[in-house]
């Protein structure tokens, strides 16, 4: 249904600064497009995933010293990435929450809200570390890195729950038939 592609894409975001986000965001885009066949709202998430591709590409190029760090274009892409990523994860989680509430699954709905709030908190914290020089110490950056890994781990568990609780056997059979035709 698309949750598996999104799961692999989110896992690849561990290395977004090394350029793995290019593949990760492309997989998130593909997964959201598959989900959009059933729920149109996921098209917005797909668009936001595409808007994150330039950041990941430029991050990889700056890491390998192909592009210089700290120029205005790179800094603008950083800010755009924070906004687009926070919006993408927030919107995805809120859409899943709405689906879970319509199916009376309170546990999945609260998990979706938790992940939405954690992702926005992470991107806000990252933005503050980059903008405020006094927050750029080793402890704050280290805690932020640990929080990123925690967020990705929670996201993976959340996506596994989504796949198990939202995807029905009939949807899986239908998708299997469609994939065999292609």
The number of helices is 8
- The backbone outline, from C-alpha atoms, is globular
Beta content comes to under 5%
- Helical content (DSSP H or I, runs of 4+): over 70%
Report, as a whole number of angstroms, the end-to-end distance.
15 Å
Main sheet summary: none
Which radius of gyration do the C-alpha atoms yield? Answer: 17 Å
Order of helices and strands: HHHHHHHH
| Alpha-beta content class | mainly alpha
Average pLDDT across residues? 86
Which stretches are low in confidence, meaning pLDDT under 50 for 5 or more residues running?
none
Compact overview of the structure:
This protein has helices at 3-12, 21-36, 42-51, 53-63, 72-102, 106-131, 138-165, 169-181. The protein is mainly alpha-helical. Helix 2 packs antiparallel against helix 4 (53-63), helix 4 packs across helix 5 (72-102) and helix 6 runs antiparallel to helix 7.
